[in-house]
Design brief:
Distance between the termini: 28 Å
Strand order of the largest sheet: 3-4-5-6-8-7
CATH topology of the largest domain: Restriction Endonuclease
Number of strands: 8
CATH class of the largest domain: Alpha Beta
């Protein structure tokens, strides 16, 4: 564990270049590995204090957190916005801010490397592993659960290069459940040979439902919910309870992975939702082991 102390000057400089709302930056810090819970402070001081806390927490890899937080800002040039007349000025400001971060890192004896790596000056990053030239030679994780968990947890990260594309390219949006399902399907296909989207479940209470993805070889169903509104956020737990009852009756479903994509942080008690739904769920119809992922933009 690298408990490298981050100076207040460095923390203030990094905080000054971060953009986004409280929920957006909360999600960024949490996914980067910052110690929880977040400080109860105003927008102007919260992020620098949270970064400073990273360098004082013995259970936090402060340089890893710092690199993950900086990666998008440092590696991605500003995108062209339709109707923007000041793109050159935007890029110039970004370059100045980036240089300011580089100087602040250097003052603390640190250096940023592409890909979200921050290391002490003079310590070279580990060389990247050579890419396999043959598709069949690429190493796969030992368990399908490892693949699913990695892809699921990084779904918002996979969206970024598609929503922030290069100059002149059409950006994609992920504004509906179908959009996110299609991205997940595309990410799964290189790893899982048999994916059956939209297969019907057996009837429950006089109705049946379509599961999003069935992976029959692994006895696994993936169900994705897109939280559309505050009203829907209140109902998503009930929807999943009904879905679970359907899946218990399906002969090829023993594991259920529920993805709740909540881009606007509308679910009031996400941990409570997970606690209520996760774990083995049994009835006379069968048993299914439920795992819940709550994701934010």
């Amino acid at each position: 564990m690298s408990n490298f102390r981050l100076s207040r000057g460095l923390c203030a400089t990094v905080a000054s270049v971060l953009q986004g709302s409280h929920p957006t930056l909360n999600a960024l810090f949490e996914s980067a590995g910052a110690p929880m819970p977040p400080p109860e402070l105003s927008h102007g001081t919260k992020w620098k204090e949270w970064l400073f806390r990273c360098g004082r927490d013995p259970n936090t890899d402060s340089l890893s957190v710092l690199g993950n937080i900086l990666e998008e800002f440092m590696d991605a040039r500003p995108v062209v916005r339709l109707g923007s007349l000041n793109y050159e000025d935007t890029v110039k400001i970004w370059e100045e801010q980036r240089s300011m971060v580089v100087d602040a890192l250097e003052a603390d004896g640190l250096r940023y490397y592409r890909g979200g790596r921050v290391l002490p000056t003079g310590q070279a990053p580990q060389p990247a592993q050579p890419e396999a030239t043959d598709y069949t030679a690429q190493k796969k994780p030992a368990q399908i659960s490892e693949v699913i968990e990695l892809l699921v947890r990084k779904l918002p990260r996979a969206m970024h290069p598609l929503t922030h594309r290069r100059k002149g390219a059409q950006s994609l949006s992920f504004a509906t459940e179908w959009d996110v399902q299609d991205l997940l399907h595309a990410l799964l296909r290189p790893w899982v040979a048999d994916i059956r989207p939209e297969e019907f479940t057996p009837s429950y209470a006089g109705s049946s439902t379509r599961m999003d993805f069935l992976l029959p070889k692994h006895k696994l169903v993936i169900e994705l919910k897109f939280v559309r509104s505050k009203d829907h956020a209140k109902k998503v737990g009930d929807e999943l309870i009904i879905d679970i009852a359907h899946y218990q009756k399906h002969s090829e479903c023993r594991n259920l992975w529920c993805i709740v994509y909540d881009p606007n942080h509308l679910v009031v008690n996400p941990e409570g939702l997970k606690k209520d739904l996760e774990g083995p769920r049994s009835s006379k119809e069968g048993t299914v082991d439920v795992k819940v992922f709550l994701l934010h933009a």
